[in-house]
Amino acid sequence: MSFPIYWLKPDVKEDERLRYGKHMAFRTQLCDGNPDHARRQTRPTPLRLEFRGGGLTDFLWTPYSEAIVGEDVVRVFSECGIAGCEFIPAELENTMGDQVASDLYELRVTGWGGMASAESGVRVLEECPHCKHRVFSGYTDASRLVDLDAWDGSDIFIVWPLPRYLLAVESVKEALVERQLTGVKAVPISKLPKVVAGTLTPGNIRDWFDTDRAGAFDAEIDAALRV
C-alpha cells in the first residue's frame, strides 16, 4: 500500500449491539440447482432495530456490523466532505415492538474497492455452477487486500468478498478522532482479525449495491478471478 487504509472497527460490547426488530424479516431466494445455496439474501429497508436501553454511542452496530449513526455523524461527514456512503433512515423500536423517536440512520457504503488483490491470499475455493454462489478463502495478508487500481477513490469503501468490513482513508480517521466520535475505531487494515472458520461467503453482490452498479461490479469480479 502506498498510503494508509483503515478498518472502521465496531467499538462496542457484543451485548450493546442493536438487535433486529421483531417484525424485520430477511427474504431468501434459494438456488434452483442446489437448495443448500441462498441465491439472494435480501434484507428490508429501512432497518427496524430494537433498543433495550443503556447508553448510546455515536456509532451503533447491528449483529451483522451494519453501522447505525445519529444526526451528529451525518453532519460531521457532510462538513468534512467524506464520500463513499449514504445515510438511510432507520427505525427504532422498544422491546414491546413499539416505534420510538430516534433520528437514526444506516451508514450504507457506496464506495467500491474492487476484488481483493491476489497478493492478499483470497481465492475461490468453491463455486456453484447454477447460481455462482462462491466460497472464498480467508486472507493471509490483510495489508494487501486493496488493489489501488480497482479502488474508485471513495473515502469509505468495501472490497469483495468482505462487504461487512468498512474501509476508510486517513481523512476519515482524522474526522473520527478530531470530532471525538464514539463507538468506532479506525484500525490499520493490517490488524483485521482472522476470518472465522477460515472462509468467506459474501453472498450476491446485488444484495449490497443497486442493480446497475452490481452488474458492473459482478463483471469486474469475474474478470479479476479469471486472471
Write the topology of this structure.
Blueprint: E1 6-10, E2 19-20, E3 27-30, E4 38-42, E5 48-50, E6 59-61, E7 67-70, H1 71-79, E8 85-93, E9 99-109, E10 112-115, E11 124-127, E12 134-137, E13 156-160, E14 167-168, H2 170-178, E15 184-188, E16 199-200, H3 211-226
Parallel strand pairs: 5-8, 10-13
Antiparallel strand pairs: 1-14, 1-15, 2-5, 3-4, 6-7, 7-9, 8-9, 11-12, 12-16, 13-14
Keywords:
single chain, alpha+beta, 6-stranded mixed beta sheet, 5-stranded mixed beta sheet, 16 strands, 15% helix, 32% strand
How would you describe this structure to a colleague?
The structure is a single chain. Helix content is 15%, strand content 32%. A hairpin with a 6-residue loop joins strand 13 (156-160) and strand 14. The longest helix is centred in the C-terminal third of the chain and has 16 residues, at 211-226. The strands form four sheets. It has a six-stranded mixed β-sheet with strand order 2-5-8-9-7-6. The chain has one domain (6-226). The protein has three helices and 16 strands. The mean pLDDT is 91. It has helices at 71-79, 170-178, 211-226, and strands spanning 6-10, 19-20, 27-30, 38-42, 48-50, 59-61, 67-70, 85-93, 99-109, 112-115, 124-127, 134-137, 156-160, 167-168, 184-188, 199-200. It is α+β, with helices and mostly antiparallel strands and 227 residues long. The two termini are 21 Å apart.
